Amino acid sequence: MELIEQHTCFGGRQEVWRHRSGVLDCEMRFAVYLPPQARQRRLPVLYWLSGLTCSEQNFITKAGAQRHAAEHGVILVAPDTSPRGDGVANDEAYDLGQGAGFYVNATQAPWSSHFRMYDYVVDELPRLVEAHFPADDRRSISGHSMGGHGALVVALRNPGRYRSASAFSPIVAPSQVAWGEKAFAAYLGDDREAWKAYDAVELLRTAPEKLPLLVDQGDADEFLESQLRPELLRAAAEVAGHPLQLRMQPGYDHSYYFIGSFIGEHIAHHAAALR
Ligand SMILES: N[C@@H](CCC(=O)N[C@@H](CSC=O)C(=O)NCC(=O)O)C(=O)O
């Protein structure tokens, strides 16, 4: 592991690390914010999954999350959104390939050799974080758009592993919208049965753990009706009796201005569950 960035921030440290990922078979970067309390004791971790086109940088430079993490004594970890590098498959489009890993384990060539973001987020990254930083095994997860999809899927598939889950503007039903159909066909193949393991609306129907979900969605989001479709999550939650707080936020779009406006409430929500 190599430290490639460090900044003092709200009395703690914002760091960026580079490491060799065995799961992804490439070098990866992730950001970690260590609040001031981390100098005294081990702390819980909130994992943040970013959206299409993002790296580990977008969340740490745009969301304003560090102030709230310092207040609540929560470590923030934000990985990159895909494997990267010259030897890693890519596509010219912004919504496939590098920067668009969709938090799945790809089964199809040419993606399957590196694109295993699901295993990276669920297993390899937490193992690394809990071994190298003053972190304990209390975990929560959140994310935005493609990362909101990732956060919901990871939480729903791993009962007992996360204390809380939330999302901003998530792609709730990737099997039913263009972003998800394109990515899942490429990464997972044409058999839609295989897609269900990575679709929050599908997973929620049979989720063994009723982990309450907090979702914020701007009603002026340019992707609301074409790609996000939060009403599908609401309907599935009602049928399954799954606790969901879906808040439609008037006037907000898909940007980090929206995330910055509500990230404090999400971190407070996670901090309460992590206590
Ligand atoms: N380039 C595309 C859309 C790119 C975009 O809006 N990316 C979002 C996430 S969208 C879903 O995962 C994002 O977080 N961008 C980074 C940022 O810092 O804002 C287009 O222009 O349509």
Please explain how this structure is put together:
InterPro entries: AB_hydrolase_fold, Esterase-like, S-formylglutathione_hydrol. Helix 2 (66-72) packs parallel to helix 10 and helix 7 packs parallel to helix 9 (230-240). This protein is α/β, with parallel strands linked by helices and 275 residues long. It has a 9-stranded mixed beta sheet, sandwiched between helices. The model has no long low-confidence stretch (mean pLDDT 98). Strand 2 (12-21) and strand 3 form a beta hairpin. It has 10 helices and 9 strands. Helices cover 36% and strands 24% of the residues. It has one domain (2-274): 3-Layer(aba) Sandwich (Rossmann fold), CATH 3.40.50. The structure holds the ligand N[C@@H](CCC(=O)N[C@@H](CSC=O)C(=O)NCC(=O)O)C(=O)O. Ligand LAXINWYW binds at residues 51-54, 58, 62, 94, 144-146, 254-256.
What is the topology?
Blueprint: E1 2-9, E2 12-21, E3 26-34, E4 43-49, H1 57-62, H2 66-72, E5 75-79, H3 117-132, E6 135-143, H4 146-157, E7 164-168, H5 178-188, H6 192-195, H7 200-206, E8 213-218, H8 224-228, H9 230-240, E9 244-249, H10 256-274
Parallel strand pairs: 4-5, 4-6, 6-7, 7-8, 8-9
Antiparallel strand pairs: 1-2, 2-3, 3-5
Helix pairs in contact: 2-10, 7-9
